[in-house]
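P.,

For your records, the input lines for the assembly:
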Amino acid sequence: MTNAPSETPTNDPATVTAVQAEHFNAWYGDFQALHDISLDIPQNRVTAFIGPSGCGKSTFLRWINRMNDTVAIAHAGGTLRMGETDLLSPRTDVVDLRRRIGIVFQKPNPFPKSIFENVAFGPKLHMRLSRRELEELVEWSLRKAAVWNEVKDRLNGPAFGLSGGQQQRLCIARAIATGPEVLLMDEPCSALDPASTLAIEDLIFELREQYTIVIVTHNMQQASRCSDQTAFFFEGKLIEVGSTTQVFTKPKNKQTEDYVSGKFG
Amino acid sequence: MNDIQVPMVDPGRAKQRHTISKLFRMACMLVAVQAVVILVILLSTIFFRGIDHLSWSFITGVHRDDNPDGSGLWPAIIGSIVICAICGLAALPIGIGTAIFLEEFKPKHWLLRVFHNLVQLNITNLAGVPSIVYGILGVTTFVYMFGLIESYEANKAPSIEFGARRYYQVRTAAKTFVWLPVEDKTIRLLEINDPIEAMYPNGQSFMLNVINRGDPKPDDAELLGQTVYRGSKGSIFSKHPWYYLRLPFHKSVLSAGLTLALVVLPIVIISSQEAIRAVPDTMRDAGLGLGCTRWQMVRTIILPASIPGIMTGAILAMSRAVGEAAPLLAVMGGIVSKRTGPENLMDNAAAMPITIYKWARDDNPGFWELSASAIIVLLCLLLTMNSFAILLRYWAEKKFTAN
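Structure tokens returned:
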């Protein structure tokens, strides 16, 4: 794969902010997981969250589409907005929010259903489609997720029959079938082999033309290969954020430098 | 810091460890074997005592007081099945619903969380309550309804009822019977003096032709069948469809089924909870991440994935219900000499465990062996149900381990 670090600077005036956090704090019970995070996630760009385990990057990701609502003791303060939508307001319809902000998890988690049914699951929840429209949408999503050619002859076969990498791309297809604006990816490649990882990274690079992508990763190379902007988290604080090229070549902060150069973490 | 030498391994210690391990393994085996041996002795005793009387006519026959050889189990089998069906219809929706609430709708507010925990704690404790306690509970709740409603007496019309149709039966001059609709069910005998509307048992209605005693009978056969003498009396009787209901339920299969539902409810809830908990959280995340509401997630992901496990638990609970005697004795009494199954929900019924209990302690020794035969039938039913549960579990495991 030849995705050199993108030359697109994040301070490009053409970039629009998709998701914006201002003085965002998050807690699990009494434990404060995130401290005063202020961060702009630009539209149609890939933003990578890096940092050692337990630094709060996944927590932040799961707050963007309110997946943390399932955790009884989780609560948050500050501002987190997507366009005009206040992501933290109790009045926000989380069901529609999660349609607009898709998420892909660490471990591929297809439903124990057929490949077709997996992709059709989201659209069936939110839209009223004829069989034909549904079939078109499923094919479009699978093509978009670069897995169509591998599954087109076995759409009615079980999703569990696919390899890990194929399953993960199926999950991406499933996420984009509901027509999201933002795609969150929580370490999408950590359970995959190098070849599948590369395929997913390719895919991420292509998907950014249509979606705003936020990817959490432990893999420095991955962040440098496929992201435009990188945010470094450490112990619940946002240490540094900047264009990926800058963060990896000329980090401003000593901790960031140590982390990206592999001295700790 | 000084370096120390790691001490030599003592070969005696190793040998001793292996010996203890072997002894423990043998002790475990012994315990397991003795459990099986006792079971085999029990079952084979029953089998050899009961096999002689086991025949098709035993299964399809009815109880005869003085004739053990001609007696059969049919009304008890039907009774058990009906009670078990009522129990299942009551316990499964409530039990599975409760399990879904406890597992998938954990509240966030502290007060609701206290309630949630209280329910959970109660259910765990209720699973250990002896079934006779539920029997007494069933008697007060379903049979007498805490005495809040006027008590029901046999052969009297209950004050609150639904579905019963009552008629007066009158003999015509043709010595056939016709029916008159009942307006006031407290009048048990109706004297007929004037022509009123009546009907044949097939439902066709006509006007009664009333003549005085001593008057000449009509010649026409049809008219004769519609003619009664002035002053003849019609006595009340009632027809009860299967859905006939009265309050309180009194000693009925409905009371018995609901009481058994109480007995098995904790089992259904706990096993359903375990089945639901076995669905991996990644499935919940996937559903919620796509924008499911909680209920959509439960309906489209959790229930399809956990239904084999839930059904396994349900079948095991039902097989517990089929074998329960104590709550039935408390609620319906020891009924054996029914000639049919229950005719409606308010009818009482014989049931297999009670028939076994009654036969085993009958004065007539002929019934003792019959009791063993009935146990074989009951055990066969239980084994069938349990093996069905095992098949379901096997199928469910195969479905889950595919990932």
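Two observations worth noting. The radius of gyration of chain A is 18 Å. Chain A has a mean pLDDT of 88.

Regards
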